[in-house]
Design goal:
The structure is a single chain. This protein is mostly beta strands. β19 (319-329) and β20 (334-341) form a beta hairpin. Strands 7, 8, 9, 10, 11, 12 and 13 form a 7-stranded antiparallel β-sheet that branches. It has a 6-stranded antiparallel β-barrel with strand order 14-15-20-19-16-21. The chain has a 4-stranded antiparallel β-sheet with strand order 2-3-4-5, with no helix packed on it. It is built from 4 helices and 21 strands. It has helices spanning 43-50, 57-60, 65-69, 124-131, and strands at residues 2-5, 34-36, 78-85, 88-96, 102-104, 109-112, 136-137, 147-151, 163-167, 176-187, 194-209, 214-221, 230-233, 252-257, 270-273, 286-291, 295-297, 313-315, 319-329, 334-341, 350-352. It is globular, with a radius of gyration of 25 Å.
């Protein structure tokens, strides 16, 4: 059973919010006085109903840092009300109480085994496949993982329904396994450091007979599977329940890739970011996306050259282009969902702590 804490309104603000509180919260145009949560809502979407800058959601709840990391789970049917305390907007949560209004929920511990009905932070249908798969591996990270050593009748192409033989399963009792091979190197666009490798997801296999080698049957294949490909136990997706919020310090990274190698990245697309937990990135962080300003040559005149006679260049400013919600982190990289975009994002674009 999981224990989830309710939001406790009117707690003292911690220094974590001191920077964010430097600017007054701005409500969205036509922000409602109350809103009843419905199935299909997301925390990000509800935030946008009340605030011009949805990542400042924790401030309007008077949440401290611990509560942001373990927030109240919001459910369909609950009513979110907008009030003012000492002239500042505040949200509270209640439940329907018929036509007479709402019944306020007192601070309490809500206990639930699965909380499947709670609304997610962002659309689960978009990020689901990216939560249940490794996605990023360190160099030599799969060297010791079980490996396909042969196929039935020595088939060259291994696909759905094929029988394969896998070495290295050992005592692992997992029944369903995912198949991968190391993919493209993820390089930091600024310094060239290899931050990891994208794991190319190939399909899934089911263990049918233990041993060394073990016997497995391919139950699904997204791409061609070959001898030498590696396996990891399949896991269930764990949807992030953290509230969207800005980092409490300046974090600045770059977009490194998008699934499928697309050049133009739009809203609801997934991006790989060149910063991870070692840099302070955490699930729920909202980062502003900027189109990277080009470097151009200065005008051709006497003032356009430096002391050594070389042509000067001018770096154009980065231009704001949207928001990215971080939903999964690794040590050196993170995955984010583009929740807002003014125009297409591109590999190399900047992501950083948003301005208040």
């Amino acid at each position: 059973m999981q224990l989830r804490c309710a939001i406790i309104p009117l707690v003292l603000l911690t220094s974590w919010f001191s920077l964010a509180q430097a600017d007054e919260l701005q409500l969205a145009e036509n922000a409602p006085s109350s809103y009843t949560v419905v199935k299909g809502d997301t925390l990000w979407g509800i935030s946008g109903r009340f605030l011009k800058k949805p990542w400042r959601w924790p401030e309007i709840w008077d949440m401290n840092k611990a509560q942001v990391k373990d927030p109240h789970w919001i459910y369909p049917g609950e009513v979110i009300s907008l009030d003012y305390v000492n002239g500042k907007p505040r949200l509270s949560i209640g439940k329907k109480a018929g036509r007479s209004g709402t019944e306020k929920l007192s601070p309490h511990i809500r206990e639930s085994a699965l909380d499947k009905q709670a609304i997610p932070s962002i659309p689960p249908s978009v990020i689901g496949p990216f939560l249940s798969r490794p996605l990023v591996i360190e160099e030599n990270g799969m060297v010791n993982a079980p490996v396909i050593v042969a196929s039935e009748n020595e088939r060259v192409i291994i696909g759905t329904g094929s029988k394969t033989y896998v070495e290295g399963i050992g005592d692992n009792q997992a029944t369903l396994w995912q198949i991968y091979r190391p993919g493209t190197a993820l390089k930091d666009p600024e310094n060239g450091e290899i931050l990891g490798y994208e794991a190319t997801y190939l399909g899934e296999a089911r263990l049918t007979r233990s041993g060394n080698p073990a016997t497995m049957t391919i139950v699904s294949s997204k791409e061609e599977i070959n001898k030498g490909d590696r396996l990891v136990p399949a896991t269930n997706a764990a949807y992030p329940s953290y509230s969207p919020h800005a980092p409490d310090k300046m974090i600045k990274g770059r977009v490194m890739s998008a699934p499928g190698g697309v050049d133009e990245i739009g809203q609801n697309a997934i991006v790989t970011i060149s910063k991870g937990t070692r840099d302070g990135v955490e699930i729920g962080h909202v980062l502003a996306a900027y189109r990277l300003g080009a470097t151009v040559k200065a005008l051709d005149d006497k003032e356009s050259k430096d002391w050594f006679g070389k042509a000067r260049t001018i770096k154009l400013p980065d231009e704001y282009n949207g928001l990215v919600f971080v939903f999964r982190t690794f040590e050196k990289v993170s995955y984010g969902l583009v929740v807002q975009s003014l125009s297409s994002l591109h590999v190399g674009d900047v992501v950083q702590t948003p301005e208040n």
